[in-house]
Amino acid sequence: MAFVEKKLPADAPLAAKAMNWVDARFPATKLWNDQWGKYYAPKNFNFWYIFGSLAMLVLVIQIVTGIFLVMHYKPDANLAFFSVETTIMRDVPWGWLVRYMHSTGASAFFIVVYLHMTRGLLYGSYRKPRELIWLFGVGIFLCLMAEAFMGYLLPWGQMSYWGAQVIVNLFGAIPFIGPDLSLWIRGDYVVSDATLNRFFSFHVIAVPLVLLGLVAAHLIALHEVGSNNPDGIEVKDNLGPDGHGVDAIPSHPYYTVHDIFGVTVFLAIFSAVIFFLPEMGGYFLEYNNFIPADPLKTPPHIAPVWYFTPFYSILRATTTQFMYALEIGVVAYVALIWMRSNLKPAIKTGIAVVALAALVGMFVFDPKFWGVVLMGVSTLILAGLPWLDQSPVKSIRYRPAGHVYVYIVFGIAFLVLGFLGTKAPGYWGNLQLGTLTLDIAQTVSQICTFIYFGFFLLMPWWSKMGTFKPVPSRVNFHPH
Q1: E strand or H helix at 170, and its extent?
Q2: What secondary structure letter does DSSP report for 127?
């Protein structure tokens, strides 16, 4: 196609001429209009739809503050701790603010992302035609976990060092390749300077590049199929004379103002935490991390940061006694699939073979290995939601009341797992049942683990149960 530059009047503003010159060579205006300026979204968005833009804001905060931190950080085991706690926190002007913005931003990122995922869960934003959007989102979540874990080691405090030691050693539980894999990740036989340099490289360069690519793919896929809404109605199915949905409005200026309000509230809370409570009682920054890493002195209680603790609890819940219940659960689940599913016989047979192999493995490999497996599966299972949910409606607004209670129980179980993951074993003491002694906290974690996996694995059945409310043809919207 021939190069064409739009002709403007001689008295056109200089900014218009400059933009015209750029548009002739790069589709800047077209990208803005496609991705936001003239992107039409459902008009019934509520506060749950603020968290997507907030996630983008926190990502920018993390990148910008990370750049300034890298300028003064020393990725050396002998210098790392003091480069953070002395150079950045005390010597560099406003360095303490940049450091706290980054550390608080890490927790804020997960808070915002967890709420963003909750909205998707409540309103069925993972359902057709948005499966790929959800899969990109799960990829972003996994990248965030990798980024946070590797960044957690960099301050080289006691909890950073020993937390990394524990997590990396978990890979050693993998049969056959575990010890070599752990050695390869560490770059040494213990967490050392080599580990610090590897994690620094991945945290600063490799993982952020993948993360930015997934974020771009997530947004492009979203704007290709359109946004979901609290009613779960496809606004593109009811078009007006202008070719846009009659229940859709331009994102700019309507949702620009909507998001600016959300950003203002968020920044007020974010600033209050940074200036008055950056450690958040030891949840955002553990007190042991203000002590230099000492390979010869183990902290009394090693636990990951709060946003990892639900999955860490699943790992700790996997004991020898738990394995017996897990074996019974696997057998019962396969029986349920054979008796109450419409899958093809070949697929059922394949599932039965995999389950049989898993059962054999449960007798061969120790519970530590299966704890690592369950911890990994607990995150990866999120990717299966678009196919596990068989409900005839998307939004929780039109589901039976019983479904609401299922979501509430799942949410409570997830929060309990997160809370117990921050506590030492035996936090609630022991319960004596005859000759059997039960760790109450561990038993609760095991029950919550079954609830967590049951929510997803039983979804093909419970998501279809009950009497569903009729879904209206137009979105419910009350202007105010």
Answers
A1: helix 158-170
A2: S
Binning pLDDT at 50, 70 and 90, where does residue 2 land? low
Nearest CA among 371, 226, 228 for reference residue 312: 371
| Closest to 196 (Cα-Cα) out of 163, 150, 162 | 150
Token output for 97: 């603010």
| pLDDT surpassing 70 at residue 3 | no
Measure CA of the first residue to CA of the last residue in the chain; give whole Å.
48
What distance in Å separates the CA atoms of residue 124 and residue 136, rounded to the nearest whole number? Answer: 16
Least confident of 102-116, 240-254, 322-336: 240-254
- Is the CB of residue 406 less than 8 Å from the CB of residue 455? yes
Q: How far apart are CA 441 and CA 462, in angstroms?
A: 28
Query: What stretches of 269-418 adopt beta strand conformation (E)?
Result: none
Distance between CA atoms of residues 282 and 317, nearest Å: 23
Burial class of residue 126, CB neighbours in 10 A (0-12, 13-18, 19+): buried
Q: Dig out the tokens for 75 from the structure.
A: 């990725």
Neighbouring C-beta atoms of residue 354, cutoff 10 Å: 12
Ramachandran sector of residue 192 (left: φ over 0; alpha: ψ -120 to 50; beta: rest): beta
Could you read off the pLDDT of 12-21 as tens digits, one per residue? 888 888 888 8
CB–CB of 421/163 below 8 Å?
A: no
Strand bridging mode 40-42 / 248-250: antiparallel
Q: How far apart are CA 53 and CA 399, in angstroms?
A: 28
pLDDT value for 70: 96
DSSP 312-332: HHHHHH--HHHHHHHHHHHHH
User: Mean pLDDT over all residues of the chain?
Assistant: 91
